[in-house]
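Summary for the steering committee. The consortium agreed at its last meeting that each partner would contribute one worked example illustrating the joint modelling workflow. Our contribution is presented below. We chose a case with several input lines so that the handling of multiple components could be demonstrated. No manual editing was applied between input and output; the record is shown as generated.
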Amino acid sequence: MTITAEPAVQVQGDRVSLLRVLGPAHVWALGVGIVLVGEFTGWNFAADKGGALAALIVCWIVGLLYTSVAMIDSEVTSTVAAAGGQYAQAKHIVGPLMAFNVALFLVFAYTMLEVSDAILLGDTIVAKAGVEGLNHNSFIAATIVVLAWLNYRGVLMTLNVNFVITAIAYVSIVILFFSVSPWTQGAVLKLNELVTPGNALPYGWIGVIAAFQFGIWYYLGIEGTTQAAEEVRSPARSLPYGTMAGMITLLIAAAMTWYVCASLMPWEYLGITYYPLWDAGKLTGSALLENLLFIATLLAALASANGCINDAARAWFSLGRDRYLPTWFSAVHPKYRTPYRSILFLLPIALAFAFIADLNQAITFSILSGVLQYTFMSINIIMFRKKWPLGSIRRGYTHPFHPLPAIVLFCLCVVTFFAIFLGFGSQLIAMVAFYFLISLWFHFYRYKFVRRGAQFTMPWPKPQGY
Amino acid sequence: MWVALSYACWGISIVLALWMLYDWFKIDTTYSEEMLTSSREGELEAVSEKHRI
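What follows is the complete predicted structure of the assembly.
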């Protein structure tokens, strides 16, 4: 990947739009960057719900869910190449009300994930410092403001930075894995002592179901790659390539992370620590590994927050551009070519949540919005294939075994909703009620401002049956 | 050191936030609203990729 300077002012006539400057490596950096923090914290709470083996089972099953997400998303996005990602897909394939809801899912999922990342980064620094009275608020503010500034200044530099810091965080997991002699049990790793038939599934199979809620963290956010659709040079090639490469990267990282952590910590501790990989680094007894994993935890949180700001701003920007929200939000910076007003609008909201919200609440809201979005995707692909069958429009990528991935995705989403209901039932109901009420507002008030014909922009033939 | 770093974080946050507000004001007063909100979805796509089967 080459790192080049941001272009100077480029205004074509009296129009200004987002820049097409990204390649597959940037798409990978966006997707993996958002997700990788889940290996450094989050997935391990699955062990608290169902034991170490449950955390491994959900790693595989939720991996299947996200492989379906990546395949479905790659096919649709390689065709609907517009900022807003799943929002633009929903608008063209399902309809405006679904699109409005999907955009809100996206903004909530990414903003709450950004908030969680910033809180994690602040708490990690405070834990490392061990200074009495040191507050995490300054580190949270710096994380959110510096990354917003980076996003404000241009997408190319933003994702170049994400590529570098994500790669460092990823390599740290690989280094940790090979440093503990994974091929030898007993030297450093003690999997056969820590995970036994007696404690592998302490709560039985209901524990495995409950673990789904946090198993999502292994991969949450990989679908964020689609938000770059309007800024990649070749969407039909770069998006499927970057997304699928990202998914493979994450499957490997998740497996390595579980193996090392479950072999070093008892499930009772693994399920409650906020820093499983950093703790694993400490438990090796190597100061070098401990410091490497501390830095990697910070970098992973930074990369995730950076990608989340990018994605939330593009979803919000797209809503403004179609008049689903005031068009004021659809402004593009004439020099940096970024949705600068959307970035600035979401900045104080993220700061406010980061200062007042609890990490668990923020994570739960993010996961809930994410799962609502995945449920939509399973329905979306069925409608897409029905309205525009293979051969009717050009696809950059065609996913195999249709409709099996859509069915698998839908079923796993239902299981995940049940798992969330077990742990955070009231939040689930409150969130669904919120989306219902906001849908009423959109349908009865806001939609009259939308230019109905102008919002459908893809040069496709009429769908079958219309 | 950590306390100094904490103060530095506040400082950097305030400086960058003010810079963004200044730039926002400058851009909004230099360019017309029509031009700033002139981006259209699918415009580049339609130009760059001909839709052929």
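The first helix of chain A runs from residue 24 to 35. Chain A touches chain B through 54 residues (CB under 8 Å).
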